[in-house]
Write a structure and sequence with these properties.
alpha/beta, TIM Barrel, eight-stranded parallel beta barrel, 9 strands, 17% strand, globular
């Protein structure tokens, strides 16, 4: 099983120097990928700009979006942006897409909430792939939308969806799933993987889904306080009762040995890759987790 690291861009205090430190440390290994998510009404940096910066700040790790809120974006422009990142990274891009959990992001960008649907996302994915194939998707243009991706046919697309309906849709157009274990427990991921494999089988897919998941983590004596502070800030759109439940039970918090055992449990689920989500902006977090990951 591969282990990737997510940039802590939802933590306050990120700067150019912090971003460079995290990206370069992640690229040094033993991580397989650098992941980055999207929020609008939050202090986090804009996704595409940051993704482009990471493409030139790194040389070896895969770049993964977890996730682009695809229905919120124009698909033709998004296809061009992602193709540009694929070129800048020399073909190291994997595109995770989702509908997002926060209505305020749609409101802030002027996108009608009726677009916050998996059906809209599926249509946008089709447009991405058509653009990447060089098809003219807009009438009366002199040329197709370029540049073309380095990867033949474009980057792999993984779906950040949950539940039978979402997975049934994803099985029609995605290469796999970009899951999330809110509890930080392997059993949660294993259940999602089984549902994805069933959806792929029901869709009579010849290939198996790519199985990726993620979870929040904090290590050491201050782990519980660290993860509670992070999740309280992150779940700012939830009602107090729901937020408190997430804060109390979300993510992994414990020692390095417990962390290693947890990662081994995720490996046993058949996960292709687990993406770690740090709950501190301190660049030394990369090193502490790397010691565990290297020992697997």
């Amino acid at each position: 099983m591969k282990v990737g690291m997510t940039l802590p861009v939802t933590e306050p205090g990120w700067t150019r120097d912090v971003l460079m430190q995290w990206a370069q440390k992640i690229d040094q290994g033993p991580y397989s990928s650098l992941a980055l998510g999207e929020r609008i009404c939050f202090p986090s940096p804009e996704l595409m700009t940051t993704l482009g910066a990471c493409a030139v700040l790194t040389n070896s790790v895969q770049l993964i979006t977890t996730v682009i809120i695809l229905p919120m974006h124009d698909p033709v422009l998004t296809a061009k942006q992602l193709a540009t990142v694929d070129v800048l990274s020399d073909g190291r891009l994997t595109v995770g897409v989702g509908t997002g959990g926060r209505e305020e992001d749609y409101i802030a960008t002027g996108v009608d909430l009726t677009h916050k649907r998996i059906a809209v996302m599926a249509k946008h994915v089709e447009t991405l792939r058509r653009v990447w194939r060089g098809e003219k998707v807009v009438a009366n243009t002199l040329r197709p939308v370029e540049p073309f991706p380095v990867q033949d046919g474009g980057p792999a697309i993984i779906a950040g969806v949950m539940g039978p309906k979402g997975l049934a849709s994803a099985a029609q157009w995605a290469d796999g799933i970009s899951g999330m274990s809110v509890s930080g427990k392997a059993a949660e991921a294993e259940q999602a993987f089984k549902q994805a494999e069933k959806a792929w089988a029901d869709a009579e897919r010849a290939d198996r889904p790519v199985l990726k998941t993620a979870f929040w983590y904090a290590l050491g004596d201050n782990a519980d306080e660290q993860i509670q502070t992070h999740l309280t800030r992150y779940f700012n759109w939830l009602d107090p009762a729901s937020r408190d439940a997430m804060v109390a039970h979300g993510g992994f918090r414990g020692s390095a040995q417990q962390f290693k055992d947890r990662l081994k449990a995720f490996a046993d689920t058949g996960a292709e890759e687990v993406l770690l989500i740090p709950t501190s902006i301190d660049p030394s977090e990369v090193d502490r987790a790397a010691e565990v990951v290297a020992s697997l």
